[in-house]
Amino acid sequence: MNAKLPRGVSKEQFASAMNAMRKVVGNQWVIVDDNPLIAGYMDTYSAAPVSSTAASAAVCPASVEEVQQIVKIAHSHRIPIWSIATGRNFAYGGPAPRSAGQVVLDLRRMNRVLEVNTELGYAIVEPGVGYVDFYNYMQKHKLPYWIDCAANGMGGVMGNTLDHGVGYTAYGDHLLMQCGMEVVMSDGSLMRTGMGALPNSTCFPLYKYGYGPYIDGLFTQSNFGVVTKIGLWLMPEPPAFKPFKVQFESEDDLYQATELMLPLKINMIIPNAAITTHLLWEASLFTTKHEWSSGPGALPQSTLRRIAEKFDIGMWNFYAALYGMPEVVEENWKLVEATFQKIKGAKIILGEDRKGDPSFDYRARLMRGEPNLTEFSLLNWVGGGGHINFSPISPASGDDAMKQFHMIRQVCEKYGFDYIGEFVIGWREQHHILMLMFNRYDADESKRAHDCFAQLIDDAAAQGYGEYRTNLHFMDAIAETYNANDGALLKMHRRVKRALDPAGILAPGKNGIWPIGETPETES
Amino acid sequence: MIHRRQLLAAGAGLVVMTPLKIPLTFITGAIGSAAASPDVLAESGLAGSLELISAARENARAARVSDIDSTILIGQLSKAWARHPRPLFGMTRSDVAVLVEALARDHGMAVVYRGWHDHRADGSVHHVLHGDAKAVAMLKRQFNSTGSFGKILGEQITVLTASGGRPESVNFEVATGRQPSGRARFVSWAVAPVETATAI
Ligand SMILES: Cc1cc2nc3c(=O)[nH]c(=O)nc-3n(C[C@H](O)[C@H](O)[C@H](O)COP(=O)(O)OP(=O)(O)OC[C@H]3O[C@@H](n4cnc5c(N)ncnc54)[C@H](O)[C@@H]3O)c2cc1C
């Protein structure tokens, strides 16, 4: 008998729903909470208690038809279901649902690459296609395209895209490169967006906007449907690829580096999602905090300097790549070199200068879409597994980058944490990612991490900065910062929720969108 | 104008870096008899890893201390577990533990034991153990009576990789009286296949 139940659902109602679901997917694929496998759906790395997001069950359908039937059963039994694709949403909640008792709809068994079109350069994939699967597929079939993956090489194409994730090739803005979606709605009906709504259309993954309102975005970071297919555009393998790094001596160089980089980005000289990482992000590949300090609190500047010197890492480190015809790459390279040489002490580094350097190596691999797991070394900096990402958006300007950096570092230090951050550069903005690392076996440290995160949200909002994505436990807090015009946006989201999912069964609370009658307070 | 086909064709000539190889062949090796004796993996440089491996040899299918490249390890485990999921006990840094645990879910395996070990500057070791209630109580007793927790874990791998039982956490400190050599914080863990289809 299940110890946990979804809110407002009786034992009988739940048991009847589970039995009905078993008939659809088979006994083995309904995992209830006395089965040890259910622990695999927990978020064991956030700063809040694991029980607050522990699922009551997980159901693993193998086809779109099975998803439709499961959704219908959930609808008729009023069971809340939380969709995951590959379920590796590390730093943002992993595979866990928003609140205790929700049933995880685990789509990992739907893991086919349905089509790769080498003429038109697109693919259509199911939810469970992981980056490694996709990469292996392209290699096996010797297709002249690259995939684009997150630094979490265990993640997957669809889940990352639906959560607005990023990668590092020129196709690093995943949602921008997504075209066409198939969605199971809350009543079990099936819908295709854009050109896919036209029977027999061959343009489903080719033209995003179709006819009428463009709605794909509605099914991202939301709870309006269960996405069962997406189309995505693929980057042709370029004739030349030149990854490089620029190391900066001083933390203040972030200002000039950002100012100089922006024209290169806007003019697409640097076409990829380049990044500027702080010292400690890099250092965690080579050392741990304990090798430098046994006491509490953030490392002082003097120690940061010593680490920079010992491992030859910049206080900031810019990684990017040039892609295209060799002559064009070489011409553009002259411009890049001349630009960064303007910064005093900047060290420009190419692959051949850093053979065997794991940080250059994994970045170069990411910039050509080769999945790897090297970045997880970050978890060893403190040890103890705890990690949550605070991810505000910043204009790609020197002033804003410096302002956010100082603001975030100050709050981290107040709570005794190191600033471990990077800026991922989009088209005109930067995703500023703070990886807040803590020892989750230490209750005090976990609480401080939680409080630190909460203050960061408030301080950022007070300065007009908002986050692009967040961990389960802060979804409401962040939704509430987007409150211009008396919270008009969130009100609209909740109205759409009511219209598309009146029973409120799909991922209640995702990104602050609660069904009618439910609020964060009633849920907790 | 450059024709797209020209770009694609030229792209085929790019050099692809080959990943580093590490000797973890035992993970992908032949599957033994029906008895699921665990594989044991310890990361070099961690205090207690050598003792763990030598104590585990008797009961393990294979036991090895090694440098670990997490990308390669996870790649090898996914291939091996896709064919035949089997128990694995490890003593590693946090990243490897987190990744192996996540991979286990895909192969019908569960984390059946997790221990967190923190060497303090004063020479004590703080342990937080989570697993079968009886097993962790026994570990606590033994850790308290002798300092060599690597050896004790190695002797208990069969118990610790056997799933089932009511999970419980214990949290305690042991004074070792000596400074740790090697990394200060790391994890021991066990994942094992689980019989599914439990009815409510
Ligand atoms: C070391 C490290 C490095 C990381 N690097 C990056 C990085 O470079 N870029 C980046 O973006 N992130 C990164 N992350 C964060 C995260 O781990 C990745 O984004 C990862 O890809 C997300 O997990 P996933 O792909 O398995 O998605 P999932 O966990 O499957 O999905 C994510 C969320 O999307 C929604 N969802 C999934 N499937 C569906 C569906 N079918 N229908 C409706 N909603 C759905 C759900 O809310 C789900 O929780 C990193 C994290 C760590 C710890």
Q: Tally the beta strands of chain A.
A: 19
Strand content of chain A: 15-25%
Q: Provide the low-confidence segments of chain B as ranges.
A: 1-26, 28-35, 196-200
Mean pLDDT of chain A: 96
CATH architecture of the largest domain in chain A: 3-Layer(aba) Sandwich
Summarize the structure.
Chain A has 524 residues and is an alpha+beta fold.
Give an overview of the whole structure:
- The complex is a heterodimer of chains A (524) and B (200).
- Chain A has four domains: 11-106, Uridine Diphospho-n-acetylenolpyruvylglucosamine Reductase, domain 2 (2-Layer Sandwich); 113-236, Uridine Diphospho-n-acetylenolpyruvylglucosamine Reductase, domain 3 (2-Layer Sandwich); 240-472, Vanillyl-alcohol Oxidase, Chain A, domain 3, CATH 3.40.462.10; 482-522, Orthogonal Bundle (Vanillyl-alcohol Oxidase, Chain A, domain 4).
- Chain A is 31% helix and 18% strand.
- Chain A is built from 14 helices and 19 strands.
- The longest helix of chain A is centred in the last third of the chain and has 20 residues, at 443-462.
- Chain A is globular, with a radius of gyration of 23 Å.
- Chain B has 200 residues and is of the alpha/beta class.
- Chain B has one domain.
- Chain B is built from eight helices and seven strands; from the N terminus they run ααβαβαβαββαααββ.
- Chain B has helices spanning 4-11, 25-28, 49-56, 70-83, 94-106, 133-145, 149-155, 157-161, and strands spanning 39-43, 62-66, 88-92, 109-119, 124-132, 167-175, 185-193.
- In chain B, α3 packs parallel to α7 (149-155) and α4 packs parallel to α5.
- Chain B is globular, with a radius of gyration of 20 Å.
- The chains are: A alpha+beta (524), B alpha/beta (200).
- Bound molecules: flavin-adenine dinucleotide.
- Flavin-adenine dinucleotide (FAD) binds at residues 83-92, 107, 127, 150-152, 155-156, 158-160, 162-163, 165-166, 226-227, 375-376, 378, 387, 510 of chain A.
